[in-house]
Write a structure and sequence with these properties.
The chain is mainly alpha-helical and 128 residues long. The chain contains six helices and five strands. The strands form two sheets. Strands 3-5-4 form a three-stranded antiparallel sheet. Helix 3 crosses helix 6. It is globular, with a radius of gyration of 15 Å. The protein has one domain.
Length: 128
């Protein structure tokens, strides 16, 4: 279970994050407004955490060998899967915060608002 305190602590650990994702070279007023918009989206963050916990799996060493490459997804793609599953809008920034909060391996895709997320998903996650 997540709390608003968890959400705000996670946001404070991320620099230049807003409701649309990472922000580059924007005026400080724009950054501040996008950050403020994201801070009001706790329900989206909570939904993302729930989806990740439901559809993420931790493969065994043997299962990992079946995969040709590591499963890496764009945060924008994954947030759309959460939207289909939940039936409600999810911001890219809320999904990125959930990934950070849950300690999932990821890295920013420089020059875009997105995050590259390394995660193994159950097959039904993409069939929704």
């Amino acid at each position: 279970m997540t709390t608003t305190v968890d959400f705000l602590k996670t946001l404070n650990s991320l620099h230049n994050i807003g409701d649309t994702g990472f922000i580059y070279e924007a005026a400080s007023e724009v950054c501040n407004q996008k950050r403020k918009d994201l801070e009001s989206r706790f329900d989206e963050f909570e939904t993302c955490c729930e989806w990740i916990q439901k559809f993420r799996f931790h493969p065994t060493e043997r299962q990992i060998k079946k995969y040709v490459q590591v499963q890496t997804y764009n945060s924008y793609f994954l947030k759309h899967l959460v939207e289909k599953w939940s039936g409600k809008y999810i911001s890219n920034g809320a999904f990125i915060a959930a990934v950070r909060f849950l300690g999932i391996s990821s890295r920013p895709i420089y020059g875009t608002p997105d995050l590259s997320v390394t995660i193994f998903l159950k097959p039904e996650a993409t069939l929704i």
